[in-house]
Structure formats: C-alpha cells, structure tokens
Amino acid sequence: MDREATKARIDALIEPFNKKGVAITDATRFTDDLEFDSLTIMDFVAAIEDEFDIIISMNQQAEIENYGQLIDAVVKLKG
Amino acid sequence: MTEAVNQPDQPEVIEGGQPDLFSKFDPLIEMRRNLLDSGVEDPFSLVMDRVLSPTTAICNGRETILLGTYNYMGMTFDPDVIEAGQKALTDFGSGTTGSRVLNGTYSGHKAVEQALCEFYAMDHAMVFSTGYQANLGIISTIAGKGDYIILDIDSHASIWDGCKMGDAEVVPFKHNDLEAMEKRLRRIPEGAGKLVILEGVYSMMGDIAPLKEMIAVAKKHGAMVLVDEAHSMGFIGPNGRGVAEDQGCLDDVDFVIGTFSKSVGTVGGFCVSNHPKFEIMRLVCRPYVFTASLPPSVVATACTSIRKLMHAADKRAHLWENSRTLHAALKAAGFHLGTETPQSAIIAVIMPDLERGAAMWEALLHEGLYVNLARPPATPANMTLLRCSLCAAHTAEQVQQIVGMFQRAGVKAGIL
Ligand SMILES: Cc1ncc(COP(=O)(O)O)c(C=O)c1O
After folding, report:
1. How many angstroms separate the CA atoms of B253 and B225, rounded?
2. For position B214, what pLDDT does the model report?
3. B323 with B283, same domain?
4. pTM flag (> 0.90)
5. Are B44 and B120 part of one and the same domain?
6. Which atom of ligand 1 is found nearest the CA of B199?
7. How many structural domains are present in chain B?
8. Is the pLDDT of residue B323 over 50?
9. Quick check: B16 pLDDT over 80?
10. Which of A31, A36, A57 sits opposite B171 (nearest CB)?
11. Does ipTM top 0.90?
C-alpha cells in the first residue's frame, strides 16, 4: 500500500491521542516524546488495527519505537 | 512500544555512583523513597509476627484482622489439613529433592492429582510447584513460534511471562471486551494455531469475565481456550470449580489453571484438562521438568483441603454473604469500588492517588486491619487500589468491625 496514503490515515488516527499537540515527524517516539502509557498504546494500536483490518502483535509492537517505523510496519502488513 | 505494559520508566541516574545494570530501577527507588519520606509505614515490608487463625495475626506487633490474604476458604488451620501435613512430614520427610520426572513423584503427588481430577471431573491433572509456574509452563509449551495467543490486557503477570517465554505472537484485547476479542480472532492468518487466554476472576478489580460468550466466540474461530481460575476455585460455581462452571461452559474449556496458594491454603499450582494427549506435557513442559517437586507435606495438605472443598457448600454460602455485606456497606459509606455489584470475594476500593492510598492503608493498619495495597504499574489504568479479599472464616461480627474500621480510616486519610 502507498506510504503517503497510509501516513495520511494514521495522521488522522493519532490526533485524538496527541493530547499535548506535539508536532509529529517520522522520528517522534511514542513513549518518550508523546508520553503514551500502556493503556493509550493499547487504544491507539486498536484504532489502527480496526482502520486497516490488521493485527499488530505485541512482538511486532516491540520493534516499533517511532512514528516512521509504525507507518512502515502498517504498509508492510497491508502488503 | 508495547513494553510499557509492564516495564518501568526510562532509567535516570540518581545521585552518585556509576550507572550500571541497576540504574533502570532508579525511578522505582525514588518513588519508594518519596513515599516512605512522607512518614507512612512501608506497605511492602509488613511482617506477620504470629498468625492466630485464617483471619487474624499479629502484624508489626498489633493484633490485626486479615482482609488481604486470598485465603478464601480459611483452610490454612483446618485440623484435618494440618494432621495430613504432619503425617506426611513424618512418613515421607521434609522434601523430595528431585524433579517430578526423576525421583520427585511420591504417592502424595499422584494422590493430589487424583483429587484434582475428581474435583473438576476431568481426565488429567498436572501439579506444578506454583501457579506461576503452571501458567508459565503450560502457555509457553503449547503456544510456540508462529502460533497466536489472544489474551485479555489485564491478565496476570504469570500469563504474560508464559506468552513471552513461548515466543508465540501475542495479541491482547481490551479487558472483557467480547467484540475486541472477536475482531482479533477474525484477523489471524488462516491455519495458524490459536490459544485464547482468559481469567475467571480478575484479581485487581474483583470482576468476573463473561466466559460463556467469550468461549463460544473462541470456539467458533477454532481456538483452544485456557482459563485461569486462581481466584474462583473452591468458592464460585455449584461445586467450587470456578466461573466457567458457574456459567455452564466448563466443558468447552481446554485447560483450567489453578493454584493451591489461595482457597486450598498451601502452595502449588496445577492444570486440569480433558485433552487426550495431555500427559505428554509431563515430558515437554520445562517449568515442570526442570525444578524440584513440592514437598510431601504440601501435597498432603493440598489433597486433604481439595477433598474437603468438594463438600463446602455451607462455607461458600457464608463467603458470599460476607462479600455481599462488605460490598454493600463500603458502597453505602461512600467508597468508590471496583465493581458495581459483588462478583467475587475480592472487593477493590479505589483510592484517589498513591499518597492517599498509602495513608489510608496505614490508617487501616493502625485500626487493626490488613488489606493489600496495589499500585501502578501492576494495576489497570494506573489506579491505586486497596484490595480486600474475604474469607469464609470471617464472622459476621468481624465484617461489621471491618466496616467501622474503614469508615474511621477513611475520615482520617481524607478519603471520605
Ligand atoms: C490470576 C493468577 N494466576 C496465577 C497466580 C499465581 O499463583 P501462585 O501464587 O500459585 O504462583 C496468581 C496469584 O498470584 C493469580 O492471581
């Protein structure tokens, strides 16, 4: 799937979770920069999973630290 | 990013010393220091000087009512249980010094497994040294690389650790959310092995799972089902077999995990199953093979206790009565509770924050009441909880005393 289109959809999904209005780039980290706690991560991951009809297992999540890696992972999962 | 579920915050050096492998614990050390500096008694270093009964002890020098022991059925001082343990200690010695698959299977180990088969009316039972190891062993052995585990996000630490050890793909869903579970099951690749893991009672909030609906969905998607009934055994269900029995779906559970450390009143863990190939687990399950078996006295006490729990309908009824009474009274007093209605023998009292939670805990201890203080990150939604677990041996008078203690401590700690 097209990376730009995927990114646009994820941009919209992350907005309600970005409570502090951090300017998000590919290098933005979820725990360090956005201060997501475990519950926020679960809800955010669920929103992405539902939007794209995919599973992002905990094992896969462990490899994802920043926003760019998340977009890449979703692109890959959609094949 | 997942790691945040049970990982401490990022390391940060506090005062002096070179950073080393312990630096990652600095935030926790700091948090503990702040708490203790405020002058409260350390909630995590309580010493029971003497234990007087299943419901009373001398704690830090004070006579205390115990309301946080998981000793649900009060079996720890049962005369028959103690006698069985003493006899086994005399006849078989203090320990087995060996693995179940080498020199560590005594007649007592077979006897307690037989008692479990009868208790659950199932074909196979396998006893582990703890419930933690039962989850670790069974989960990691049956769900391996390429398999999928779908589990509730509020699962016990031993379940998470079992998932990690087995290397399966781990897919959590929102607590007790049937729809979230089904969506994930639906997305699992065709042909992959699937294990759904649920608990009967969730021990943090004391709520139960809608097992009947969830298990039906799991089965529809071809998943095997494991249910941890650690906090329901002996108490919930007509025969004390747990929440699955109570909801009439025990036949659809592939593996029940349980422990001897709660209602049974000793230590040990187990898995019961009707799977025709279950016995192979004894050879392939590493946390079963590579550790010493339980001492003869422990399996003898467990066996006696389990057999008595089969006929404990009166005690079950009294424990329900205690739970309902305390739940209603605490709610009426104005405390915020984990469940709207009493669903188990656990009542979680929600505290506004850790500081006031610790203050309330200490005020209760000074009143002569012990409860469990549960704090983040072990708790759902990072809540601070005072977890109360009732016992069938609490008298109706003790329950009333407990209510009074909560009211006074609540005022003192500024919660009410
Ligand atoms: C849900 C659950 N599973 C397993 C365990 C582990 O039991 P054990 O104390 O026998 O290791 C516990 C108890 O801590 C528990 O609450």
Report:
1. 5
2. 98
3. no
4. yes
5. no
6. 1
7. 2
8. yes
9. no
10. A57
11. yes
